[in-house]
Amino acid sequence: MELKELKCLRCGHQWWPRPPLDKPPVRCPVCQSAAWQIPRKPKGG
Ligand SMILES: [Zn+2]
Questions:
Q1: What would the pLDDT profile of 1-45 be if each residue is shown by its tens digit?
Q2: What's the DSSP call for residue 43?
Q3: Phi-psi region of 5 (alpha: psi -120 to 50; beta: other; left: phi over 0)
Q4: How far is the CA of 1 from the centre of ligand 1 (A)?
Q5: By C-alpha distance, which of 6, 40, 11, 12 is closest to 26?
Q6: How far away, in angstroms, is 27 Cα from ligand 1 center?
Q7: Span from the CA of 40 to the centroid of ligand 1 (angstroms)
Q8: Is the whole-model pTM more than 0.85?
Q9: Cα(3)–Cα(10) distance, integer angstroms
Q10: Contact criterion met (CB below 8 Å) for 16 and 5
């Protein structure tokens, strides 16, 4: 079984997921952002 290290795209924190691994954590444990998987969109555009 392979585990993937998770990385928060908001604060850059990296951590290993804890079971159950069904679904990714809802929030980043550090910045508590629920959008940790979503990179910041460039302003404007
Ligand atoms: Zn974070």
A1: 677 899 999 999 999 887 766 667 889 999 999 999 998 887 876
A2: S
A3: beta
A4: 26
A5: 6
A6: 8
A7: 12
A8: no
A9: 21
A10: yes
